[in-house]
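Sequence of D-aminoacyl-tRNA deacylase (Parahaliea maris).
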Amino acid sequence: MKALLQRVSSAAVHVGGECVGEIGPGLLVLLGLDKGDDLTVAQKLLDKLLRYRVFSDAEGRMNLSVADTGGGVLLVSQFTLSADTRKGLRPSFSSALPPGEAESLYLEICQLLQRDHEHCAFGRFGADMQVSLVNDGPVTFLLENSG
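Predicted 3D structure, token representation.
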């Protein structure tokens, strides 16, 4: 499981011209699900991303988490994060969780996030999404957990 965190001033997801999720200041999280990932792995990653200190404190140091700041979290599934790009000129997705399993896990992760964090929004699994963001910093981190 991979989560690409981007500290944002704002972010939104549109599908077919309709806004399906948006946040103000907070984290845009692009989520890649790999074979072997499950709810246990997901809960560990969610706990980490909600506590990951990427926001500035009064002294300008990254000492605050999205949970500390009360910022939003926009979670978007992105299977391309599971790509193996080590060989050749075309990505391999053999390590990605199959679509049916990935959708089920993604929806369960959305429920966990809603339970654990007040300000959440979500992309639509499998949709052709247009994601817009204002990356604050820019600040971007890749978190990885393995099953």
